[in-house]
């Protein structure tokens, strides 16, 4: 039985391009981001990938990435679930700020701690630990059962919500996950064993 999960971070967004903290804000994809999502769909189509169900966040950059991928594999009308549990980490008071301006205001070291620590949230926002506490229950109750039922599942979301899932799937420590960066529009293909352990992982970079 094939048990396949494809994780895909959204393509470049307008605020990625402008070096802004995005979080739960809802900017669109750039032309490059759209091209990245279309390319992801083509790569998966070239592999003969077909999906049974798709999941995405409540934000348009992930939703549009999901749709471009589905268009690319010839499944434009596939059942797709949207949930804010898969939203990007909430950057709180940093949302909308230029990252360089934030460093000038709070200092390089403090901003680095907020961005890269596991459990220190920015003011009014979420840490990676907080994001995982929101994302993982949804993954366990809604996404993983579909995979374990022998389905091919697409999950198009965000850098931090997906990192919280990758942390569990790859059995990474709190320190190890901080070194993991997911490329925009780059699919990661997991194949699962019957006991939910990972049989294989492939990154379509």
Automatic annotation (TrEMBL):
The active site is at 10 (tele-phosphohistidine intermediate), 88 (proton donor/acceptor). The keyword Isomerase applies. Homodimer. The lineage of its organism: Bacteria, Pseudomonadati, Pseudomonadota, Alphaproteobacteria, Hyphomicrobiales. This is 2,3-bisphosphoglycerate-dependent phosphoglycerate mutase. GO terms for molecular function: phosphoglycerate mutase activity. Its EC number is 5.4.2.11. Catalyzes the interconversion of 2-phosphoglycerate and 3-phosphoglycerate.
């Amino acid at each position: 039985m094939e048990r396949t999960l494809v994780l895909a971070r959204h393509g470049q967004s307008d605020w990625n391009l402008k070096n802004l903290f995005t979080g739960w804000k809802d900017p669109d994809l750039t032309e490059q981001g759209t091209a990245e999502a279309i390319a992801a769909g083509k790569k998966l189509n070239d592999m003969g990938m077909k999906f049974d169900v798709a999941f995405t966040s409540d934000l348009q950059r992930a939703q549009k990435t999901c749709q471009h991928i589905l268009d690319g594999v010839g499944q434009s009308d596939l059942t797709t679930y949207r949930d804010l549990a898969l939203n990007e980490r909430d950057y709180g008071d940093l949302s909308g700020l230029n990252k360089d301006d934030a460093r000038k205001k709070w200092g390089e070291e403090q901003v680095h701690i907020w961005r890269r620590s596991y459990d220190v949230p920015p003011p009014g926002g979420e840490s990676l630990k907080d994001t995982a506490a929101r994302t993982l229950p949804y993954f366990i109750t809604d996404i993983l059962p579909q995979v374990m039922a022998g389905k091919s599942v697409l999950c198009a979301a965000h850098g931090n919500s997906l990192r919280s899932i990758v942390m569990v799937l790859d059995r990474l420590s709190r320190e190890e996950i901080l070194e993991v960066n997911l490329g925009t529009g780059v699919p990661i293909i997991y194949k699962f064993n019957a006991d939910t352990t990972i049989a294989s992982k492939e990154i379509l970079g």
